[in-house]
Every structure is written in structure tokens, then in C-alpha cells.
Amino acid sequence: MLDPAATTDDPNAVKSVRAETAEALRPDGTDVLVTAFNSPGFDDAPTCPAPALTMDQLKAIALSPKWPAAPWK
User: What pTM was estimated for this model as a whole?
Assistant: First the structure.
């Protein structure tokens, strides 16, 4: 399962801060969550107009078979 891009609606976030996230939940219970920001954090001013990674890059990282299986499996 892959979560589509998400942009923060956090009312405490600095204006223009963008966060995009891709999440992959595997059948074995492994959950890979990858987020890219255009700032060091929600409380910091943006350092660029968009997050450093594209949504396609975030998806590729989240879906990579290189992530190890959940340790309890």
C-alpha cells in the first residue's frame, strides 16, 4: 500500500513549509515512511521552494526491496 503525497496543514507550521511523504506497508508488517521537507523542520523557514526529493524519488525509496523485513518476522 502506498500513501499519496501529503502536504502539511499544521497550523503551527511556518508558512510555505512543504512536506511530502510516501509510505509503504508490507504484508509482513514492515512500514517504511519517507518524508522530505523544503526546510529543516516545521518551525524553520523554507530553504528552497520544494522538498529536496521528488514524489517519484520518495516512492522509489519507500518501495525499495533493500529495506530489511520487520525484525519480529
Answer: 0.70
